[in-house]
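User: Fold this one for me? It's MFS transporter.
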Amino acid sequence: MSTGDPARPDAFDAGGGGLLRQPKSVWATAGASVVAFMGIGLVDPILPSIAKGLDATAGQVSLLFTSYFLITAVAMLVTGFVSSRIGGRKTLLLGLALVVVFAGLSGTSGSVGELVGFRAGWGLGNALFVSTALAVIVGAAAGGSAAAILLYESALGLGMACGPLLGALLGDASWRYPFFGTAFLMAVGFLCITAFLKEQPRPARKTGLLDPVKALGHGGLASAAVSAFFYNYTFFTVLAFTPFVLDMSPYRSGAVFFCWGVLLAVFSVIVAPRLQARFGSLKVLGGSLVLLAADVLALGYGDHTTAVVCTVLSGAAIGVNNTVYTELALGVSDAPRPVASAGYNFVRWFAAAAAPFFAPKIEEWTDVRVPFVVAAVTAVAGALVVLVRRKALTTEAEEHRPQHAQEDGVAVFAG
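Assistant: Here's what I get for MFS transporter.
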């Protein structure tokens, strides 16, 4: 039985008439969201170039992801607290301003330590922005929440696809240029939101700092978070460690991860909802996690061509997983959506911080294949959590879905 939103497959029908007819405020927020998600994969094609330019090891450069997502995880406890007090518009602008400053500073780094520190500040800004953007889009969009969520997921997929491409195009000249380019684009986003987005209504109840942690006391939400934790370790082993294994020029690496991002977008927005409607969310999620485990094993043990193909194909499984996990987190508990999402993301982003740190270390201790074996094991572990906790993930979602279907206060940092 599906635990996703049963109205979701109709989002395409609802969006067909109204998805593109949105207020300027929605397009401004969605456009800035694309750039925000570009920042996640931006450094992928230029990781070897950064290592060479700053005389750093693969493990040191991978800390760019670790610092970024470690701060993002902790910031999940802060974003709801901030936005419920100063409002969505000011939170978006604060997040964008931080990204502009720290992305620009990243391009001036003289050492890998400085760059890692600036990426941490970037992570804080990105967390403030993307955790608020969906709530703002849902509140301002025409066509209902289904069209708004579809628009947001499209922005996510486009950003994840274009990030590596931008990194490759600008990074071929210098590894510093992608950071300056991101700062410029986010500054444009800041101006657009300043001009077109009016302040959104504040929630009736202010969010406390510990509310997301308390929400994890719900068995279904905790199960979704733990399963997503294991999955994210696999996801970010592919994203942060594979560029060193492929060892390609920025252009070629960017092309590989662009194709990966396109598959991620297509399977997240188009394929996943249809699979959910036919087979149910938990079956789709479990099967997709097992396929991802097989894919990363082949990536680690195959030749170079196989590694390239498997890297691209992993985008399909990752796209499906992202969509299903997001819907589970938003619909499985009785906590307000922003609070449930913050608690869920607080847990899972620690894995996104851990994988870029441990994968190069595991390679140093063993060989280049073992990090992918570990990633395959964590993907299977995520599937086992879904299997063992399927009753909590299913029945509790059914109990609370009607309440959530009426809520527009959505906040999620998808990916």
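One thing worth pointing out: Residues 31 and 102 are 20 Å apart (CA to CA).
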